[in-house]
Amino acid sequence: MKSLENKVAIITGAGAGLGKAIAILFAQAGAKVVAADINEKTLGELSTALTGQQATYITVVADMTKAGDIETMVQTAVSTYGTVDILVNNAGVMDNFDLTADVTDQVWDRVMRINLDGPFKAMRAALQIMLAKKSGVIINIASIGGLQGARAGAAYTASKHALIGLTKNTGYVYAKSGIRCNAIAPGAMNTSIGATIDMHHLSPLVTERILPGMALNPRTADPLEVARTALFLASDEASFINGAVLVADGGWTAY
């Protein structure tokens, strides 16, 4: 039997990068995948990748800054497959390494809406279903930026620290309700999120205080390597892991 046989899994940011790798891996493990992304084109590319794999899936265009889209995403899972067993909050954005004195309200609000508010609202909606049946798994894709102070700018760092706090609180509070909530803290990955950073216009303080630590990164991960961590956490093999943060960074933060 496949490890996620007949489980219904919602994955946000599923059109590319880590989310795409998780969607494909979960489908191969027998899950019924609800793949959500703001980009309809990349969702089409995911569909192409799943063609011929005997995958059970549906795609949903969803903007994680819009509460209505999040509710529709969850209700689509229920109306299509009957329930929600697994929620993977993967959608996220970087902040161009803007430091506290330089962060605009626009950047701060956008990063928080996508990286923190979106996962929170998705969790809140999914928990109504999970609590009713006393089972469910939530996986939040955080970052080593949520554990360390100098892997990104102020907004991203704050958003990922907050997401880890939300993960721990949720995992602990609902531990006796059959629900597990964990986070993954990846290091550098070969995904498109890095393309959003303008490395040519960083402030001198970023160059002085943050970039030297980047050189300590052993290597960049293939998204599949981190996706395997998500597959483990989603499965019954991780039945006693709850409220935890699994670091998948190749040893970067071990220094």
What does the model show?
The protein is an alpha/beta fold and 255 residues long. It has one domain: NAD(P)-binding Rossmann-like Domain (Rossmann fold), CATH 3.40.50.720. The protein is 43% helix and 15% strand. The protein contains eight helices and seven strands. It has helices at 17-28, 40-50, 67-81, 105-133, 154-173, 204-209, 211-214, 223-234, and strands spanning 8-12, 32-37, 56-61, 86-89, 136-141, 179-186, 245-248. Strands 3-2-1-4-5-6-7 form a seven-stranded parallel β-sheet, sandwiched between helices. β4, α4 (105-133) and β5 form a beta-alpha-beta unit. α1 (17-28) crosses α8 (223-234), α3 runs parallel beside α4 (105-133) and α4 runs parallel beside α5. The protein is globular.
Q: How are the SSEs placed, and which strands pair?
A:
Layout: E1 8-12, H1 17-28, E2 32-37, H2 40-50, E3 56-61, H3 67-81, E4 86-89, H4 105-133, E5 136-141, H5 154-173, E6 179-186, H6 204-209, H7 211-214, H8 223-234, E7 245-248
Helix pairs in contact: 1-8, 3-4, 4-5
